């Protein structure tokens, strides 16, 4: 088969479409013939040599895909060759085929093409596990989504609205109109306005209940300042640095909490538990049309360097897909 290989980590041209050995399914795995894969920020870090795949994962980038099952490993029940699926991966989506633990498969949502479904598994599992499992967002609460225009952000806006929350987002102004169509109640241009002032104003000085944060160190102080009493900050990205100073007094005064997690490094059993939760609680919302995949552009897999350039420019809105 062909896959995107990274022999010499660095810029986008480090991504090379090359012939590699076909995968075979280990016990508990299936092989998926890939229809589409989606690009995630983590793939950029892997390309640069900063985010090696976890042990046992394919060496090629790609954390989510959709396609058709072409082989079944020992011990797998409830799936068949020819079944259309999408999947959360630990790597290897930028390829013609990928082996994946059966517990990480999701059905193609109703009225959605196999190709479109590639845009969902990683963002659905990340947003669900952080915003609902960990930060326990409830109906009637306020959710602040940093990076509302990204793949994670566009999903988080829709999930927040579907769960009955008020959703406030930070994003560059060019994206605001589309984010309001997705359901954002307030859009804040973080390049021109202070999100603490804006969120305090929008909540009559109370602050926000849950913050989904992709910035990390640079926003830590301001995230605590933006928090409502008993508020929860879920950090999933470090685009603004990994080391910051946390004012524990300020956090205590709010009875606040800060979590920080990464999905890729979780053990397979943990991923299977999250996927099961997404299938039971999020997929019905997708089937009902309350959440849809937001796809900016599609590239042939061999043009993965162009797809990465687009992601690094942040000019995209939602997800970028790759087709083998
Ligand atoms: N921990 C996990 O398990 C996990 C899983 C998946 C993703 N992630 C992380 O989640 C983040 C988003 O991933 P993605 O795939 O959605 O990437 P993406 O599509 O590139 O989205 C990132 C967004 O951040 C916005 N942004 C940049 N600087 C910002 C700032 N200072 N304040 C607010 N927004 C800013 C960019 O848009 P504009 O600047 O144009 O508004 C862009 O839309 C990444 O850091 C990724 O590593 C973590």
From TrEMBL:
Where does the record place the Enoyl reductase (ER) domain? 10-322
A single MF term (Gene Ontology): oxidoreductase activity, acting on NAD(P)H
**One matching Pfam family:** ADH_zinc_N_2
On whether Oxidoreductase is a keyword of this UniProt record, the answer is yes
The record's keywords, sorted A to Z, are: NADP, Oxidoreductase
SMART domains the UniProt entry points to: PKS_ER (SM00829)
Report which superkingdom the organism of origin falls in: Bacteria
Question: Does NADP show up as a keyword for this record?
Answer: yes
Alphabetized PROSITE patterns for the sequence: QOR_ZETA_CRYSTAL
Protein name listed in UniProt: NAD(P)H quinone oxidoreductase
């Amino acid at each position: 088969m062909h896959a995107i290989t990274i022999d010499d980590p660095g810029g986008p041209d480090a991504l090379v479409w090359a012939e590699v050995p076909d995968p075979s399914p280990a016990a508990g795995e299936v092989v998926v013939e890939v229809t589409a894969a989606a690009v995630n920020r983590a793939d950029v870090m892997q390309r640069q040599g900063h985010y090696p795949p976890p042990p046992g994962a394919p060496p090629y980038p790609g954390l989510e895909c959709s396609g058709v099952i072409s082989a079944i490993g020992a011990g797998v029940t409830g799936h068949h060759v020819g079944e259309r699926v999408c999947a959360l991966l630990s790597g290897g989506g930028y390829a013609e085929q990928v082996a994946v633990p059966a517990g990480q498969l999701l059905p193609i949502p109703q009225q959605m093409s196999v190709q479109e479904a590639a845009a969902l598994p990683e963002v659905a599992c990340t947003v669900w596990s952080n915003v609902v499992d960990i930060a326990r967002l409830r109906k009637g609460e306020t959710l602040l989504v940093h990076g509302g225009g990204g793949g994670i952000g566009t999903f988080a806006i829709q999930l927040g609205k579907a769960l009955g929350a008020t959703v406030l987002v930070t994003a560059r102004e060019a994206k605001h109109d589309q984010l309001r169509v997705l359901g954002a109640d307030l859009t804040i241009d973080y390049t021109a306005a202070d999100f603490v002032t804006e969120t305090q104003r929008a909540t009559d000085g109370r602050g926000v209940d849950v913050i989904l944060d992709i910035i990390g160190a640079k926003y830590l102080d301001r995230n605590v300042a933006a928090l409502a009493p008993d508020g929860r900050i879920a950090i999933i990205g470090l685009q603004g640095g990994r080391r910051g100073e946390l004012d524990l007094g300020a956090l205590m005064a709010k009875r606040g909490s800060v979590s920080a997690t990464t999905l890729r490094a979780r053990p397979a059993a943990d991923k299977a538990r999250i996927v099961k939760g997404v299938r039971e609680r999020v997929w019905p919302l997708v089937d009902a049309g309350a959440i849809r995949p937001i796809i900016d552009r599609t590239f042939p897999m061999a043009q993965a360097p162009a797809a990465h350039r687009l992601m690094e420019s942040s000019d995209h809105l939602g997800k970028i897909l790759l087709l083998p």
